[in-house]
Amino acid sequence: MLYVITGPPAAGKSSWIQARANARDIVIDLDRITLAFTGPGAPQWNHDPIANKVALRARHAAIDEAVKHLDQVDVYVIHTMPSPQARTNYRRLGAEIITVDPGEAVVRERVKAMRSPAMDRVVSRWYGKYRKGGSRPITGQASRSW
């Protein structure tokens, strides 16, 4: 099965996957990919734009290959804000699209504590785009004890 996990920054998307995936499953997470391509001391989030470009290319290649093996493993893709075209492509592949959202107040508090101030704009964009569009989270679970 292909699972596409969406949600604002610091919502708990990785934790949602951690609670469900097993060791054989494929997890495609842009943050983890970017860390794999950067040197010691690189930040866990808020990556350098060049590193992000390289990681995005790798993510696309990883998704293309992983979906060839859906009969053998589950594939989890973290995609914070998939475009309408990306959502269409994911649905064409039979994906279940899951939104992890513990609520805007919780997300803003986590971002303030763990991420750079620039990430607050991403939170605003996510809530503006997905809430105005009528998107409803299918989980409001807390992900971790912060």
Structure overview:
The chain is of the alpha/beta class. It has a single domain, classed as P-loop containing nucleotide triphosphate hydrolases (Rossmann fold, 3-Layer(aba) Sandwich), CATH 3.40.50.300. The protein is built from six helices and four strands. Strands 2-3-1-4 form a four-stranded parallel sheet. The protein is globular and about 40 Å long. The N and C termini lie far apart (about 30 Å).
Brief sketch in words of this structure:
The chain has 146 residues and is of the alpha/beta class.
Secondary structure category: alpha/beta
Q: Can you write the helix and strand succession as a string?
A: EHEHHEHEHH
Number of domains: 1
The number of strands is 4
At the third CATH level, what is the topology name? Rossmann fold
- Number of helical elements: 6
Q: Tell me the name of the CATH homologous superfamily.
A: P-loop containing nucleotide triphosphate hydrolases
Uncertain parts: 133-146
Mean pLDDT level: 87
Give the C-level CATH assignment: Alpha Beta
Largest sheet properties:
4 strands, parallel
**Rough shape?**
globular
Calculate the terminal CA-CA distance, rounded to whole Å.
Answer: 30 Å
* Helicity range: 40-55%
Strand content: 5-15%
Strand arrangement, major sheet = 2-3-1-4
